[in-house]
């Protein structure tokens, strides 16, 4: 029963990660194409997609909490029993923990991207002002 639960939570985390990766594919592509060259943006997008899966799977399959079904909690308390209610709880936990883990990862990505965009935009504005100053004739 434990092995089935492990496989089911892994599958749920994988499906949720796939859905999130597809949902954020376009925004991630647009952000990366603005920040880095087209050659690098494709590679970075693949990396971010890979990171979504790794973070989603590691968050959605909590090994520590699944161990309570095979290891005794103490000398007097046996391992928990996997009944229908526990299955529902574990499936719900897998979905929520997967989403929570991915949300934190994407929040960090978007914050770093925002800082990079602000810096890039500031450099572009400075370069435009310098070009404008050198191309305009001096005031009489």
Write the layout of secondary structure elements.
Elements: H1 2-23, H2 25-35, H3 38-60, H4 63-66, H5 84-135
Helix pairs in contact: 1-3, 1-5, 2-3, 2-5, 3-5
Tell me the helix content.
Answer: over 70%
Rounded to an integer in angstroms, the radius of gyration calculated over CA atoms is 24 Å
Shape: rod-shaped
Total number of domains: 1
SSE pattern, N- to C-terminal: HHHHH
Low-confidence stretches: none
Taken as a percent bin, the fraction of beta residues is under 5%
Secondary-structure content class:
mainly alpha
Distance between the termini: 87 Å
Largest sheet composition = none
> What's the rounded overall pLDDT mean?
89
Number of H/I helices: 5
Number of strands: 0
Question: If you had to describe this structure to a student in words, what would you say it looks like?
Answer:
- With 140 residues, the chain is mostly helical.
- The protein has one domain (2-135).
- It is 80% helix and 0% strand.
- The chain has helices at residues 2-23, 25-35, 38-60, 63-66, 84-135.
- The longest helix is centred in the last third of the chain and has 52 residues, at 84-135.
């Amino acid at each position: 029963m434990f092995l089935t639960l492990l496989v089911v939570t892994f599958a749920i985390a994988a499906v949720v990660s796939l859905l999130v990766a597809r949902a954020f594919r376009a925004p991630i592509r647009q952000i990366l194409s603005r920040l880095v060259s087209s050659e690098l943006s494709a590679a970075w997008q693949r990396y971010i997609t890979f990171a979504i899966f790794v973070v989603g799977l590691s968050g959605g399959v909590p090994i520590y909490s699944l161990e309570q079904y095979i290891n005794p909690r103490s000398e007097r308390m046996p391992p928990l029993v996997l009944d229908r209610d526990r299955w529902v709880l574990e499936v719900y936990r897998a979905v929520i923990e997967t989403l929570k883990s991915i949300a934190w990862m994407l929040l960090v990505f978007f914050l770093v991207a925002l800082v990079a965009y602000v810096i890039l935009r500031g450099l572009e504005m400075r370069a435009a002002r310098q070009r404008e100053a050198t191309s305009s004739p001096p005031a009489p």
